[in-house]
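Hi there. Long-time user, first ticket. I'm pasting a complex I've been working with (about 429 residues overall). I'd like to know whether the download I got is complete or cut off, because the file seemed smaller than I expected. Thanks.
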Amino acid sequence: MKTLMIKTHEAWLEMLMAGFMSKTQNKQVLFDFSDILFRHFTWLENELIEMEESYSYDRDSIPIKVEKLSDLLHDIVLRLNEIDLQLLSSPDKELAGRIASDIHYMRDVVSNMNDEIITAFSMERVFPGISLTQEATDALTLFLFEETYKEYELIMIYNYLKAHSNDAYMNRIFQILIDESFFHLKSFGDMGAKMGILAVPRIVMKELYQVEDVVMFLKDGINEELAAKEECKKLSEAVGKDSPELAKFFDFINHQENYHIALMKDALKHYTGEEHA
Amino acid sequence: MNVDTQLIEHMMNPKNYGTLESADVQGIGKNPENGEKVAIYLRVGKDEDQPYVEDIRFQAIGCTTTVVAGSMLTQEAKGLNFSGVQNLVEATMNLLDRLPPEDAACSEMVALAIKAAVDTYEKRQTDPDYPVITYKVVNSCVPKEEKQEEEK
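Hi, the file is complete. Here it is re-exported in full:
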């Protein structure tokens, strides 16, 4: 079961990366499939929790550097086959059956996708249609690496907290935070691919998601969101002269952080209120 | 950080990132100022005269600069005997003054984590239960002028 969860985690990320690389109608299908695989991942995690088995979000590194989309899709099909095999020994036959049905369909669609030439690893660092100064390009490069990882990290942390909480109020907050982080991850991943610097986010260390002190985590989280707003503001200023369009996008992301801060403040209030009750 | 092709390559594909299941020893480098940390996992081989780094991995709670420093330094450390590793750590520490503060703290954290792993290994030769050593950085991640502003 643990192996199945790890394999699903890897397939989810690889499918997501394929979505970033694609420039055709394949893109949305790959994104939708990656969302389905993420939901499989949460089902399997829930099974492990119910079986009281310890687990982590550790996984292998995922090589994605390809010249043609078909090379990556071939690898994804191999991963899906492996998941299909692992499902045979899964104790929850009903869940395994539901997942297997999705896997068979996705495998079929992915196997028949039209091929594409991939430019997501060119390292050219040129945003299509926009000419940035070297300084702005460097700032954008660093921002994309930092924030792509950060959004993945947040998805994993909120997902772990949600998986281990039976509090409906908190779970609503965690789910919105997961959804918000997914939107940001997809936006930054897409930009990374356009710049030719697409990379799989690194593995998150256990102590980050196996949170011991949720109150401290939320307080630190609010400060981190404030720092992220500042980074967006700096980046908006750095790219503003060359591209008002990009500047507007980073202002938008900056203002979106206000949702995260409001949600985390709500969560903090709920948590500390409960603790004192 | 000046972003060149070599650095981007380390950002896109950090070398030796992750844990090492068959690790003989671990070491930690930590920044008490912001909670950032680097964990080093070593598999130690035995040469005729002294131990050497057979394999190495690292994990980081930190920024991209820390990951780049981890990727570069672990590549350098791989295959070195322990004297070589101590020389690498010393050479890195001697370079810190020439780096911007935020980069210095990150590189120091990685170098200290490598040193902590080697020192833990050596301690365990006489005391197998010796705990994993954690070394703390002395460089601040915050540029001096910003720090002075914050302290006002």
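A couple of notes from our side: The longest helix of chain B spans residues 101-124. The CA atoms of residues 65 and 103 of chain B lie 6 Å apart.
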